[in-house]
# Entry
Amino acid sequence: MKNALESAGLLKIYEKIMDGERLTSNDGMTLYETRQLPLLGFLADIVRRKKNGDKAYYIYNQHINYSNVCTNLCKFCAFGREKGDDKAYEMSIQEVVEKIRERMDEPIKEVHIVGGIHPDLPYSYYIDMLRAIKEVRPEIHIQAFTCVEIAHIAKMGNKTIEETLKELTEAGLGSIPGGGAEVFSPRIREKLCPEKLPGTDWIEIAKTAHRMGIRSNATMLYGHIETVEERIEHLCALRQAQDETNGFICFIPLAFHPKNTALESISSTSGVDDLKNIAVSRLMLDNFPHIKAYWVMLGPKIAQIALSYGADDMDGTVLEEKITHMAGAETSQAMSNREIEYLIRQAGCVPVERDTLYHELNIKG
Ligand code: V47
# Structure
């Protein structure tokens, strides 16, 4: 194996990994540039096993996208609509609650809620939504509102980020999902999402939440016009923030789906690039406990293989996802626990049902 690593120019990185030494941006570039995909998987699997053994996690969860009305209209997004568009929608609090009620007989552990940047839903809408969900299903963990939405909700309420997070938490917010990070590079944001919260602000909001004891996830949207350098910068910025607060739970590389977006001429991501992003993030984000292979975007087969390339989590049942499906995802709308467990077992891992904060609920050894 050492010979193979040596001839691929990966031996020094292997030695660093074995010594627990942090990888540099240059190492990250070398990893992205290698053509030896299996060796990259071998390296990422060492770290994955050190952190999570042979466990692979999943959660029984439900997604609710409360509105697609959005003032940002990012070029990579097929979900957002201008107010007044005939495909625009917004759910009333009663409709959100109805979505929860519809699945009261299922052992759902988490509801994942995100929506567009709506120009006029009031501050109280977000607070009331959380309260209403908790009233009908108090035991459920609500993972809601990306850092981009938190900034917007605060603005609508004329409040600071701290006040907003405090009031959202009192109303039932459990943790913050990782969306809206995209690629932090100002060049990318200027070109693809000039209206969106800058990357530096996204990180500040995540860190503020962490300091208040609220955990969050992080993502990176790859496979559009970003360079490999910009991916590495994004990962290093997250690693730096995690050194400061240790509040991130999980990192999710998101594979760009071009259909129905302004970037439709760009090809979909390749299997090789999908696995590289999983592996490089596992290796660069040495302080993140978990790397998620989001099957909705990767497809179940690549997500399963990703479990040998550094990922230790497959997300979950993901009932009723809209953002990727509007952009042409051909995956189904949900997977059962049994299907997920089958994929995990076939990958040689032990399926572990978890809650949002990775407490182990059921080890299916
Ligand atoms: O912020 C938008 C991305 C994100 C497209 O925290 C697209 O556990 C691909 O963040 N192709 C929302 N991606 C989804 C998200 C997420 C998903 C699953 C789990 C978690 C978590 C977070 O989806 C957006 C944006 O980055 N996105 N359009 C597209 N066409």
Notes: The chain is about 45% helix and 15% strand. The longest strand covers residues 248-255. The domain at 53-363 is CATH 3.20.20.70 (TIM Barrel).
